[in-house]
Amino acid sequence: MKRAFLPIGVLFLFCATGLVEAQFGLPGIPNFNPFHPSTTPNAKTVKGVTEMAKGASGISLQDEMKIGGAVAVDIVARNGGLVKDETITHRVAIIGKSLSYYCTRPEVNFRFAVLNSDHINAYSAPGGYVFITRGLYDALPDDQQLAAVLAHEISHITDRHALKVISRSQFMTGLFDAGGSVSSVPGFDGGVAAITDSLFTKGFDPSAEFEADRDGRSLATKVGYDHDALLAFLTQLYKTKGDTKDAFPTHPPLSHRIERLAEK
Amino acid sequence: MRKFLLLAVLLTAVSLAAAAELEAGHSAYVIHDGQPLLADKDPDAAAVAKLKTHHEYTVVQISGRWVELKAGSATGWVYEGNLSREEPPDVNNSAFSTQASPTTLSAAARGIDDDAKGYADRKGEAESANDVVWMEQENDAISKDDVRAYLKEHKLGEYSGGK
Fold it and tell me: In chain B, positions 14-33, which contact chain A (CB-CB < 8 Å)?
């Protein structure tokens, strides 16, 4: 009976460790084989993993807002400021809020704006800040495709992709004091730099972008926008830009995203 | 070893439960405090009760995108987008909460704070910080009622007719 149970237990163990890593974005324990005694994690390793998990899932909304506010400042600074047109901003914001009204993080106050840049790109920062460039805004033919792009960015925030970047770097330890204020300026600035480096240079992991495509489409569809609007926009963009870095330069190639979205 | 396996089984069960969809007989939570429990599958139907966040309600049945809930002695309908299978975290901080407590009012409602502005000063990006404040003001001028009016006008969300 015990022998019969063991393979089932092993299967559950395999599934559970995979799910934990997927949920929290943990890097895992290097060279850890749960079935080999020599690689069984010692107390120190387990403690380290616990702290990383806390870093990934235990960032308060207040701390997230602090980090996100600073990241938002950097995004604006690197993209020529905002387009301070109330009509344009209201259109983007009301469509964005129609999506975030039904999103999985109702505690977040999502805010939307257009960056004064001709490039075709979009960004999100922790705490609910969503930006699209003027170049992207002008390339979007209708509300359906604008909603599709905004839903992708909202999903980066609901899926906590940026926060996972900094939790992996473990910079969060001791960053805020008991009152919630920044207690380590170098640590805070380093964490913000880690996120902006991902946003502007390396990009998120391709898996995070594909996840945001999938979850964003799910959100847009749930609200009643066109299920295939993102696929249609990326396909049209691909016809003019191909897989160059002229559009969404820090994202996976357009052809890869189209291929994933086209899978039924 | 046995404890380790038990923990693994438990973690798996919790993860699978969290990923589950709304289902008859299971529990559900509302994501907006004061969510009306409606007499019919229609956003303009009469409210038979007001639902609270952090309260667990039982799913009676699902019809299209509408979910019938049991709340005490009352039953009624809620659009699926206003429900969560898991208890939403920190809902008192909801951007649209009308009943946020003074103590939780609210990290989300505030704009960038002194720490973020300090970061902007250190980076020489004070003007960009002002832009972010402008963005927050423009967005925060849009109320929950404005969003619901937009949804209704464009037949979105619960106004989509369950399509």
Answer: 15, 31-32
